[in-house]
Design a protein that fits this description.
single chain; 477 residues; alpha/beta; TIM Barrel; 8-stranded parallel sheet; 17 helices
Length: 477
Amino acid sequence: METRIQVLNEDEKAQVHERTLRVLSTVGMRCDAEEARRILAAAGADVDETTRRVRFPADLVDALLAQAPTSFTLHGRRPDWSFPVGAGGFTLLADGGATSVYDVATGERRPTTFDDWCAATRLLDALDDVGLYWCPIDYDVDYERPGGLVRYFTRVFGTFGKHVQDAFGTPGLAPWLKEVLDIVFGGSEEVRRQLPLSFLITPASPLTLERDFTQTWLAMRDYGLPVAVMPMPLQGATAPGSRLGTVLTANAETVGTICLVQAAAPGTPVFYSPVLATMDPRTGLYAAGAVEHAVLGAAGTEMARWYGLPAESSGLCTQTYQPDLQTAWEKADSALLVTLARPDVLVGPGLLGGATVLCLEQIVLDVEVVRRARQGATGVPVRDDLWLDDVLEQVGPCGSFIGERSTRAGVRGGEWRLSRFGVQGSWDAWRAAGSPSTLAAAREVVDEILAAQVSLPYDEDQTAALAALQRRADAAS
């Protein structure tokens, strides 16, 4: 029997949908991109150009949702890597956008550097648990100019060999990214087949589709890239002051944006990806480690499943600025609750301070937390060969099962999950080893991985073509 969680029952999820239809048809969404408004009007939405308000009839919403695929397969540059979305699998997407780094060696926070980006990206590439990539830190990347955009994506695809998810808000740069994709993946048809990149659209809460990122996706849509729709409503601030009202807000924003995607490019793969968060009532700020955040993440995952859409969910969040006990409980409860809701993708490893501080050691510790959560999700497997009542009868009262073949089989077959982290033996053994800390063990793992990790290089033709493209992009900047 698997371990499962239920935040919303079937009737409650149906109510969320029905009220979403009401919100989208009466309140609607503000849509700041003129081309998007034209597309939605042509599809049958009620568009008020004066207020930029778009209202969606219920039958239009249902028809457009039905066009979204329930499954698709992501690829990257690694020939041996793929991830079938919507097929019951699970992978991690390391959180991104940190503005500083916590240095375990000094115990200090410092500004990010390009070397930090290289180390984090190489580490994530080496971790099999992590299948999707966001840029982990801000390190003076100039997305607003062709040279910066081409340089960044050339580096990303040259360092991270799995699937990349990203976004930028300058529509005029879309042709430059298409050229990078063509060179790296062999042309537009191969890009459409492999789906090596997905685009992130983040509606502003409440109920607003902002212009720049929407227009950029519209400029990219002919490449058929998957879209992750990720509004970030904040309970009590940019969403109503109840968890249920926040679920409704997030669902309306996500569904409304998916409607635009399907109206503009029918059949485009989408992730249902809202980040349902809550504020700290004492400050009005984002409460990253709140348990309500975790519960809302599970609720969002359940809504994705109700629609039959792939779920990209948020977890592993913490408000702490350095790894400590608070970090542990906040990341553990969010990882477990959201993992039990069964998302396809879980966003979160590696960041502290409400997703503003990167810590390499925290990346590997977060992966360990998720491994534990996934083991917990397996519950108590039930098969005829696992009852072992014959072994119980054979050993009998006062016996020991340590030497039994079935015990060895259980250890090797997943009945136990063995970790290299944490204290496993006696006090004396721990003291004799120098009383090692978990952070020190994580540092060792990071060092081992980075010493061995080798990114997949570009071939000679790709290297030459990317260099020529970079020269043109720099000249155009």
